[in-house]
Amino acid sequence: MLADKSTSHDDTLRRVRELGPWFHNLRLEGVETAPDHFLGDYPSFKWRGFRHVLPEDMSGMSVLDIGCNAGFYSFEMIRRNAARVVGIDEDERYLSQARFAAGKLGVDLELRRMSVYDVASLRERFDLVIFMGVFYHLRHPLLALDLIHEHVAEDLLLFQSLMRGCRESRKLSDDYAFDDEEIFDRPAFPKLHFVEKNYAGDPTNWFIPNAGACEAMLRSSGFEIRERPETEVYLCKRNDSAPWRR
User: Fold this and answer.
1) Number of structural domains found in the chain
2) In this structure, what CATH number is given to the domain that contains residue 62?
């Protein structure tokens, strides 16, 4: 029996290395997939800061994980008894990691290679849409939120984005005079910082918002912010009162 366990561990370790590098640190048969992650035990440590905003028992709920990567959040939803979990990602390497991890964990995770811009092709809505760590990698971030609202979000949206600039938001007036230029210099005014080349060595970092921009864009796309359990994370509820729909 000990020899069998040792062989299984060695096989898992070999396959984890073959599928690397990993961005999600998962634990598979005693093997960590990203033990030297520059952020630490990621995303487990981050999940602990906001997991309380989701139901402990998600029986009967359907979940769409957009930009699922190696599947950490998908697996957490499965652990909470979600009835169905679908993960999508554009990167085949991440999907291969998620397939391997699902097999090792013995869980049923539906995986599809597709972009957030293609979510209409799913032709269904989900009780919870997870949209974590994707927003700032998009050239068309507001379009992505609009498509999520229009095509796949039935009720809840769990949203996270890297943020830079002011981390606090302020209530704004509904309108400002044409010659009121000062408002644009206020730190809390909604801003998207555009990255022309690279940020943190990553050419896929395109628009990095401050908190005001995150919140304003979520509201504009038809999501009511219910909770902000940590600086970069929002739990939202879908509604049909987006300003652009008036």
Assistant:
1) 1
2) 3.40.50.150
Report the predicted TM-score, pTM, of the whole model to 2 decimal places: 0.94
Q: Residue 43, preceding bond cis, omega within 30 degrees?
A: yes
Tokens 């990602």 belong to residue: 89
Residue 112 φ then ψ, to 5°: -140, 140
For 223-234, the pLDDT digits (tens) are 999 999 999 999
Give the structural domain span for 99: 58-245
Q: Phi and psi dihedrals of 225, rounded to 5?
A: -75, 120
Pairing of strands 207-209, 192-194: antiparallel
What would the mean pLDDT of 47-67 be, rounded to a whole number?
98
Q: For residue 172, report the phi and psi dihedrals to the nearest 5 degrees.
A: -110, 155
Amino acid making up residue 26: L
Dihedral-angle region of residue 60 (phi above 0 means left; psi in -120 to 50 means alpha; beta otherwise)? left
What ranges make up the beta strands (E) of 97-230?
110-113, 126-132, 153-160, 192-194, 207-209, 223-230
Rounded to whole angstroms, the Cα distance separating 99 from 112 reads: 10
Q: Does residue 31 sit within a domain? A: no
pLDDT of residue 6: 62
